[in-house]
Amino acid sequence: MDFTPTEEQTAARELAARIFGDLATHDRLTAAGTGSDPELWKELCAAGLTAAVADIGLLGLVLMLEEQGRTTAQVPFAAACVYGALTVAAHGTPEQRERLLPGIDDGTVVVAGALPAASSVTVRGRERALLTGTVPAVPWLRDATHVLVPDNGARPGLWLVRAADAHCEPVELTAPWAAGRLTLDDAPGERIGDEGAYDDVLATARTAFAGLQAGVCAGSLARAVRHTGSREQFGRPLAARQAVQLRAADAYMDTEAIRVTAYEAAWRRDENLAYATHALTAAWWASEAGQRVVHTGQHLHGGTGADLEHPVHRHFLWGRQLDAYLGCGSEVLQELGESLTRGEGSR
Fold first, then answer.
1. Residue 302 has pLDDT above 90, yes or no
2. What is the fold, at CATH topology level, of the domain defined by 197-341?
């Protein structure tokens, strides 16, 4: 395994870091409230970062999502790249790729994902079908022009539905992800991929959002380090105290574990190797360790961390939301164990 980024991946990461760092400021995030920042989204797409995913692969996307997580930038970047760019490129027909990818690349087509499987969604027909059902919360649905919806089959199929053909009711999640409640009433949908597409997209999503969590944790820890290094108590910086050092060291090791497992799963996908259990491993670390890290980041800020307006609180909300979105640690660990006992470790 070699996780050394290529020149293209490094350039994309550096550009993403600059754009997120310049535009995802505390004031702009506060002004956005629970919505997204349309100017930041336009800047990312104009810079070619959504289009770059086709060339830099899932590992390149994970690197860019780390930078989004560091700043908790409120744009549908993860969803659009995973459920849009990567899904259509890997599982779309030539006609679908020709029709959808240009819009995904320039940001005019934004695909949200109703994943994991929405068991209440039923389908009538094949290829071009009618979908009925409700998904309680879809992240970034309020920004979406399309939504990727799995059906309730034993092996779920994937269907692309235009947001204009569905009903979206805004809902608030723990993190400000412009989410919505999706209601489908004989909404037309087009099939994306074969029966195996759902498993691949789910594993890709788990890997990508684990990378996002690595960035959220790194950002939270960086804020805690700055705070404890500058804040003095009894004439000494808080960072000089052993208890603080040990707590920060544990958080650092957890963050590195999230990062390296996400890198491995992404690298394996890019190399066309089996990666489903590796994606589950990354998701487990991101869920179980991620919530520990963001709690630590907030705790090390002391009373300041209790301020809902403080930037570290945003990392806390994102970390807890990603924990819930990936599935709590015990649930993911159970799925991983069941997968291994079925002999699926090589898939």
1. no
2. Butyryl-CoA Dehydrogenase, subunit A; domain 3 (1.20.140)
